[in-house]
Structure formats: C-alpha cells, structure tokens
Design a protein that fits this description.
This protein has 512 residues and is mostly helical. The protein is built from 18 helices and no strands. It has two domains: 413 residues, MFS general substrate transporter like domains (Growth Hormone, Chain: A, Up-down Bundle), CATH 1.20.1250; 55 residues. It is globular.
C-alpha cells in the first residue's frame, strides 16, 4: 500500500477536534497488545537460562528461540499494516489477539526446543497483526497534534516498558512456576482487549486500498531470514561459503524488493519515503534504540543469574529502576521536544545509551548487581526519550489513511532492531564464549558439547559433575562469557557514537 511522499499538513490544536474520554479509554485498551507483544520480545532473556538447562538447546537453537518471534514480526509487519488498511484495523487486531493467546498456550507446553521455536514463529505471525493496528488506530483516534504526540509517547513508553518488563515478569514467574508460565501471561492480558476493543475502539481502514502483494511479502522474508541465519551460523560454526551464499540471497532479495516497490503504482511500501532525511533518520533511530535495549538485556540477564548467581526474582528486581526511568523518560520528553530541536534531544538520548554500554565495558567481570542496575537505568533514560521522539516524527509525516503502512515501517524497525540486537551482539558473545571457555579433561563428549555451546549449558554440566572439575568449568565459563560481554559492550559504544552522528545530520530539519 502506497505511502504518500508529502508530509501531512500539521493540524493546529484549534482546528483539530480534541480527544474525548472514550478516546483515552480506547488508548488504554490498545496498550494491552503493545505491552504483551513487547514483553514477548524480551521475556525469554530471563527464561533462557532455565530453558537452556531444561531443554538443552544448541547455541544456534538458543538464539533462534529468542529471534524466531521478532524475525517473523519484522518480515510481516508492513504487510499486516497493509492488510489492516484494507480489511479494517480493529478487525485485524482482534484476529491477531485471538491467535496470539492460543499459540501462547502451545508455547508454554512445548516439550522440545524445536517445537518452542515453531511456536515462537506462530506468535510472530499473529503478533504482526497486533502492533501496526495499535499505532495506526492511534493516528486516526487522536487528530489533535499535541494530544497525538502524547498518545504516541504513551504508546512508545508502553512498548519500551514492555521490553523492560519482560525480564521482570519472567523473573517473578520463574521464581514460583516452570518456564512455560512466561508465555501464559498473554492470555489474561488479551482477554480484556477482546471484550472492550469492540466497544471503545472505532474501526478504521483505507478507503482506497491496493492489492495484496504476495511477492513483496515473500521478498521481505527472503531478505531477512538468510542474513540473520548467516550471522548465527558464523557465530556457532567456522567460516563456510554457505554463509556468504545466504547473505547474497538476502541482499539480492532486498534489491528485488526495492525495485519492485519503485516499479509499482501502488506499492506495499513506498521506499521513496526513505529519500526524506527525517523519515529515514527516525526509522534508523528506532532500530538502533531497540537494538541496544534487546542486546543489553540478552547478556545482562544471563550475567545476573548465571555469573552473579541471583535468583530470577532478585535479578528481575535489579532492573526495576531502569524500567521506571524508561517509562518516565518517554513521557517527560514530550514537553522538552517542544522547546529543543529533535535532533539534539535524540543525540543526547543516544549518548546516554552509549554511556550505559561504556559502564559495562569498563567494569567487565567486576560488574556488580548495583553496577548493572545503574547501567540499565542510564540506558532506559536514553532509550525511552529516543523512541518517543522518533515515533512521533515517523507517524506525523504521513496522512491518516496511510497510517497502517507507516506504522508498519515504524514497527518493522522496532522488530528488526530486536532481531539484530540478539543476532549480532548475541552471536558475537556466543563466538567469544566458545573461543574462551576451557573444558576440564575427561569430560564426556555430550557434556563437553553442551558446556561449549552456552553459559547455561556449562552451569548445568558443572553442577552435574561437581567437585574441583565442576568449579574450574564454572569459573572458566563465567570468565569467557564476561570477556564476550566486554567485547559486545565496546561494539555497543561504537554503534551509539555512529547513531549520534546520524541523528544530528538526518534530523536537523525536523520541526519540534
């Protein structure tokens, strides 16, 4: 579905109708799928150590358990945004909520890592129906610019809060229940949505929808999946030419996708929008923000539990200050951005995220629970503000009747950031761990393979063999893991530095 390449005229507060109490109640209802979808992005960060001990997945399977969900979302979000424009955004939201709840039950009782990955794929499919619908419905419900900016700030804060809340909820549940319980939280959250959305949320759709472009949908998946798969394979295996072939397939499919969109009169995604510096910059800021958040949670959650030895509940509480700061930052930046240029606000926000990674890089193996809590709070302060500003810039630049496709772009950047956060930083961390861990002599082949794959596997093996050998394995595994954390943190600092330059340049013409 085409996105117009001219920005929507800014409506003044005097011209645009103000939102009613019913509209704000609709926002509250729409926050439910936002929370649960973003919680699912990171809840496994805390459940992963338990899952790795229970199901004993390979290193590659462990990464796929996390990434299968956001990868499918990233590939389908633009398409689902278009379907919502065509069939009705509220209708698609209700279909997605029903399917998401049912598949969550399946995931909770998956007996093997392979079946859990398959369930995560299903969650990604139905989750892709939830997120574009919520953001595009907000665009049609809140017509006043200032109220819409606040609504989007609440939406972005909810998404960020859900991403940070995932590990906390996971920690609480894992303290009392089995690992599958982290999936069942979707059911009680989505039932109120199914009850109240038909009563409070108005239906909206594009009056002139285009055709469903199946070929473009396939090309998006052929772009993402091979590249992510190649990254994971490179981290867990020696260099092979098949990895180069996979990257080539992804790049070729991406090129064909862009050419197809340029050639069609009514494309699924109007890639001409990316000629606009503000739009492109805001989308990339979204991606980098979530990349840094998810990548950070991936290794911090394991360090808290498997290195420092905290229980899931205690480890979760260590992140609570960061969660509070992230929510507050996303909301408090709204009045700030009225007076300060968006590129300056975003650059400062990204500098804070870079500082969080620098704290981890400098403390390394000496990082304590307090150090990690402070680092996460600094990260939350930056990410909460950056996501609110970038989302407002993306959504306010398109007409209301194309809101589904625009929100699909915004959400795709979110989910692609989640995928790459784990795929890139997680894969580098995995490779560093595999190269640094030293196994005790005489360890059985099966146990050696498990210990070499993941830190969770090494902890499980060390506990099973016990004695001096188990202690040496545990110390070696923890040291290798933290050495990898220092390396990935350094990469995080470098990425934030580049993102700051990107924000200052691409968002310099954005209006407050």
């Amino acid at each position: 579905m085409a996105l117009l390449t001219t920005p929507a005229p800014t409506q003044s507060s005097d011209a645009a109708p103000r939102a009613s109490v019913r509209n704000w109640l609709a926002l509250a209802v729409l926050m439910l799928p936002v929370l649960i979808s973003s919680v699912d992005n990171t809840v496994l960060s805390f459940a992963l150590p338990v899952i790795s001990e229970a199901l004993r997945p390979s290193a590659a399977a462990q990464l796929w358990i996390i990434d299968a969900y956001p990868l499918v979302l990233a590939g389908l979000l633009v398409a689902m945004g278009n379907l919502g424009d065509r069939w009705g955004r509220r209708r698609l939201l209700l279909i997605g909520a029903t399917g998401f709840a049912l598949v969550s039950i399946v995931a909770a009782f998956a007996p093997t890592a392979e079946l859990l990955i398959l369930a995560r794929v299903g969650l990604g499919f139905f989750g892709a129906m939830l997120m574009p619908s919520t953001l595009s419905l907000l665009r049609s419900i809140f017509l006043d610019r200032e109220q819409r900016r606040l609504a989007i700030a609440i939406w972005a804060a909810g998404f960020a809060a859900g991403s940070a809340l995932g590990p906390i909820v996971g920690g609480i549940l894992l303290e009392h229940f089995w690992w599958g319980s982290v999936f069942l939280i979707a059911v009680p959250v989505l039932i109120p949505l199914l009850v109240f959305a038909p009563l409070l949320v108005p239906e909206s759709r594009d009056p002139n929808p285009g055709r469903i472009d199946v070929i473009s949908i396939v090309l998006t998946m052929l772009t993402l999946v091979p590249i992510v798969f190649a990254i994971k394979e490179f981290a867990t295996h020696d260099f092979e030419w098949v990895q180069v072939l996979l990257v080539a397939i992804g790049v070729t499919a991406g090129t064909l996708f862009v050419r197809r969109q340029l050639a069609r009169a009514n494309p699924m995604l109007d890639v001409r929008l990316f000629r606009r510096g503000v739009f492109t910059g805001a989308v990339l800021i979204n991606l980098v923000s979530v990349f840094s958040l998810v990548g950070f949670l991936f290794f911090v959650s394991q360090h808290l539990q498997l290195v420092l030895g905290l229980s899931p509940l205690d480890a979760a509480f260590a992140l609570v200050p960061g969660l509070v700061v992230m929510i507050a930052s996303g909301l408090l930046v709204v009045p700030v951005v009225r007076r300060v240029q968006p590129n300056i606000v975003v650059a400062v926000s990204l500098a804070l995220a870079g500082a969080a990674y620098a704290i981890i890089m400098l403390t390394g193996q000496d990082a304590t629970e307090g150090t990690l809590a402070i680092a996460f709070a600094v990260l939350g302060l930056g990410i909460g503000a950056a996501e609110t500003v970038s989302n407002d810039l993306i959504i306010s630049s398109v007409p209301a009747d194309k809101a589904g496709a625009a929100s699909g772009v915004s959400e795709t950047s979110y989910e692609l950031g989640a995928v790459l956060g784990t795929a890139v930083l997680g894969s580098i961390l995995t490779a560093a761990y595999r190269g640094g861990v030293t196994l005790p002599a005489g360890l059985a082949d099966e146990s050696a393979s498990i210990a070499r794959e993941t830190l969770g596997g090494a902890v499980s093996v060390a506990e099973s063999i016990g004695g001096p050998a188990g202690y040496r394995l545990l110390e070696s595994a923890r040291g290798a893991f933290d050495s990898g954390v220092v390396l990935t943190s350094g990469i995080g600092v470098a990425m934030m530095a580049l993102a700051i330059v990107l924000a200052l340049v691409t968002l310099r013409k954005a209006r407050s």
